[in-house]
């Protein structure tokens, strides 16, 4: 099996990756700007044996984070100027305030009654008050 030597990316290359990623440029375009084949791009993006990001993957993530930070800063400025749409954008997309756990239709408490218990056994688990039409319990 032959091992192919990967090209070393210079600091200038990684800076270009950060800038392009910050602007939202797609990876295949960045790859072509660097003159890399898809195989070499994939190899350069792969994490190391310890799970650390490669320099290329790190530059991509840093650029994307900077771009997202720019959008958030812009929207915060717009919100401070009174834009409700900016506030909605931040609440929904950035801070995810209205999402909960992702299932708004589900009850917040699930009550599972084991049908195998007799009324006497069930009364030992929870204090049951026999009042028709009233759902109460004591602790």
List the secondary-structure elements in sequence, H or E: HHHHHHEE
Report the biggest beta sheet as strand number plus sense, adding barrel if it closes.
Answer: 2 strands, antiparallel
Mean pLDDT: 83
Low-confidence runs (pLDDT<50, min 5 residues)?
none
Rg from C-alpha positions? 28 Å
Spatial strand order of the main sheet: 1-2
What form results from the Cα inertia axes? Answer: elongated
Percent helix, as a range, is 40-55%
Structural summary, described in words:
There is one protein chain. This protein has 139 residues and is mainly alpha-helical. It has helices at residues 11-22, 27-34, 38-45, 55-80, 84-94, 119-125, and strands at residues 127-128, 137-138. The protein has a domain at 11-94. The protein has 6 helices and 2 strands; from the N terminus they run H-H-H-H-H-H-E-E. The protein has a two-stranded antiparallel sheet. A hairpin with an 8-residue loop joins strand 1 and strand 2. Helix 1 (11-22) runs parallel beside helix 4 (55-80) and helix 4 runs antiparallel to helix 5. The longest helix is centred in the middle third of the chain and has 26 residues, at 55-80. The chain starts with 10 loop residues before the first helix and ends with a strand.
């Amino acid at each position: 099996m032959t091992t192919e030597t990967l090209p070393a990316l210079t600091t200038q290359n990684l800076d270009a990756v950060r800038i392009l990623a910050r602007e939202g440029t797609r990876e295949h375009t960045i790859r072509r700007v660097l003159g890399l084949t898809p195989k070499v791009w994939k190899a350069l993006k792969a994490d190391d044996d310890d799970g650390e990001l490669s320099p290329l993957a790190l530059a991509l993530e840093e650029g994307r984070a900077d771009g997202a930070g720019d959008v958030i800063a812009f929207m915060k400025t717009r919100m401070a100027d009174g834009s409700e749409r900016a506030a909605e954008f931040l609440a929904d997309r950035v801070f995810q305030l209205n999402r909960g756990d992702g299932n708004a239709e589900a009850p917040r408490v699930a009550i599972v009654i084991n049908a195998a218990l007799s009324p006497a056994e069930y009364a030992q688990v929870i204090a049951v008050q026999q009042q028709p039409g009233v759902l109460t319990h004591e602790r």
